[in-house]
């Protein structure tokens, strides 16, 4: 039973993250302003679980009001983005530090990945509760 509680908690976490990302993306698509930014550096953040980590690009761009913004993006990668790389951005004109890469990957696919993963875990747990599958045992044995 504890495994089911843990899995439901993980699923709810995925759903929450996905819905927040989707909400932010919809807001940026509706009210955001486009700008081109340049990667000025990458900040490395080590993973808590192992020795690997991600590089989070720090971008610089100029708003429509000629304000220069330097901001670390929320999505990291490994390998890092090359310094000098130009990125199309979408930013909140009321809070230009709220900025995202203007791509379907970041604005659509990432949020839906989290939502679908959370939903799938919930479905598998429900199937487990109705004795249709033995999902938690497969997780434990993995």
Task: Provide structural commentary.
It is a single chain. The protein is an alpha+beta fold. The chain starts with a helix and ends with a helix. The model has no long low-confidence stretch (mean pLDDT 93). A five-stranded antiparallel β-sheet has the order 3-2-1-4-5, with helices on one face. It contains three helices and five strands. α1 (2-31) packs antiparallel against α2. The chain has one domain (2-141).
Short note summarizing the structure:
By secondary structure, the protein is an alpha+beta fold. Helices cover 44% and strands 30% of the residues. It has one domain.
Computed CA radius of gyration, to the nearest angstrom = 19 Å
Strands of the widest sheet, in order across it, are: 3-2-1-4-5
Q: Provide the residue-averaged pLDDT.
A: 93
Q: Return the domain count.
A: 1
| Structure annotation, total helices | 3
Which characteristics define this entry?
single chain, 142 residues, alpha+beta, five-stranded antiparallel sheet, 3 helices, 5 strands, 44% helix
């Amino acid at each position: 039973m504890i495994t089911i509680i843990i899995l439901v908690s993980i699923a709810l976490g995925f759903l929450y993250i996905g819905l927040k990302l989707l909400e932010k993306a919809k807001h940026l698509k509706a009210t955001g302003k486009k700008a081109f930014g340049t990667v000025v550096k990458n900040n490395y953040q080590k993973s808590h679980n192992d020795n690997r980590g991600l590089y989070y690009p720090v971008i610089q761009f100029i708003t429509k009001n000629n304000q220069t913004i330097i901001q670390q993006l929320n999505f990291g990668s490994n390998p890092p983005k090359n310094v000098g790389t130009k990125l199309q951005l979408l930013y909140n004109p009321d809070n230009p530090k709220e900025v995202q890469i203007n791509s379907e990957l970041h604005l659509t696919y990432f949020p839906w990945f989290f939502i679908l993963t959370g939903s799938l875990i919930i479905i598998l747990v429900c199937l487990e509760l109705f004795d249709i599958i033995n999902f938690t045992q497969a997780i434990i044995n993995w």
